[in-house]
Q: What sequence folds into this?
């Protein structure tokens, strides 16, 4: 029997030698025939344009670090692969690790300088924070709450297409929460903005970290109340009601959008309910 691999997050001391590392740039993660983890000592000999380094945890007990690059470089025998490509792959453990690393990389890039005075910020030892001594301010990784909702009307579900989606794929509606707004109020507002309908009986179903780049997706189910679909210009390419017996191409199975859809289909058919992806 194959022993399951284990991934745990942690803030590690970057001064400690050894360990493995993943490398991230604006083109994704560095990859070779053995995967995405490289010897940390080997990477240090490659003269990489490193912005910063972060200890991000352990994989099978081995310390793992993240190198954030200013730009992608070409190293013989390697290539770059985006996080979305890893999401569509078969290795959930690797995707989970890289999703976390990608969020740390985004935070590290966006907080190299103090947002208040513009001076360089420094990493805080033992803490996931960037610090400006002049302003005495700490900057932590950003988590942006957003809602995602499946709207149903009996044997019909409302699905929509964004111009950014893969051709043919329809998904649930989603949007970011605004200051002072509850998640349920966000559902009602975003649905009205995107398709001009009212919903009722909003029920929370679960959440998922969505590292594109740093969202916390709060998943809901809501029932149709009233109104006719009017897609929001520039945001929604198409939106329509689909029968549960005749569905269009759907989002990736590792997404909470697909979970919300599959959960409703299972409940309507009496099939076993799906498991919410991590």
A:
């Amino acid at each position: 029997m194959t022993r399951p691999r284990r991934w745990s997050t942690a803030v590690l001391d970057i001064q400690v030698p050894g360990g493995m590392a993943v490398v991230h740039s604006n083109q994704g993660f560095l990859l070779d025939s053995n995967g995405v983890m490289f010897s940390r000592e080997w990477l240090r000999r490659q003269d990489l344009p490193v912005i910063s380094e972060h200890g991000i945890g352990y994989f099978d007990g081995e310390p793992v670090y993240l190198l954030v690059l200013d730009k992608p470089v070409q190293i013989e025998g390697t290539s770059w692969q985006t996080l979305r490509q890893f999401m569509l792959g078969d290795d959930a453990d690797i995707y989970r690790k890289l999703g976390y690393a990608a969020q740390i990389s985004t935070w590290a890039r966006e907080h190299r300088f103090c947002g208040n005075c513009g001076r360089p910020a420094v990493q805080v030892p033992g803490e996931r924070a960037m610090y400006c001594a002049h302003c005495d301010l700490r900057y932590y990784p950003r988590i942006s709450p957003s809602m995602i909702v499946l709207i149903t009307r009996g044997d019909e579900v409302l699905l929509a297409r964004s111009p950014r989606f893969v051709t043919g794929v329809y998904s649930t509606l989603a949007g970011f929460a605004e200051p002072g707004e509850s998640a349920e109020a966000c559902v009602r507002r975003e649905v009205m903005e995107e398709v001009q309908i009212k919903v009722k009986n909003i029920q929370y179903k679960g959440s998922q970290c969505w590292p594109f780049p740093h969202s916390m997706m709060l998943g809901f189910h809501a029932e149709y109340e009233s109104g006719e679909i009017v897609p929001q210009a520039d945001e929604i390419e198409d939106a329509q009601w689909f029968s549960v017996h005749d569905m269009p191409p759907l989002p990736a199975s590792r997404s909470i959008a697909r979970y919300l859809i599959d959960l409703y289909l299972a409940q309507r058919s009496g099939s076993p309910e799906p498991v919410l992806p991590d």
Q: What stands out?
A: The two ends are 23 Å apart (CA to CA). The first strand starts at residue 7 and ends at 12. Helices lie at 40-44, 83-87, 92-110, 183-195, 256-269. Residues 144-269 form a domain with the Nucleoside Triphosphate Pyrophosphohydrolase fold (CATH 3.90.79.10).
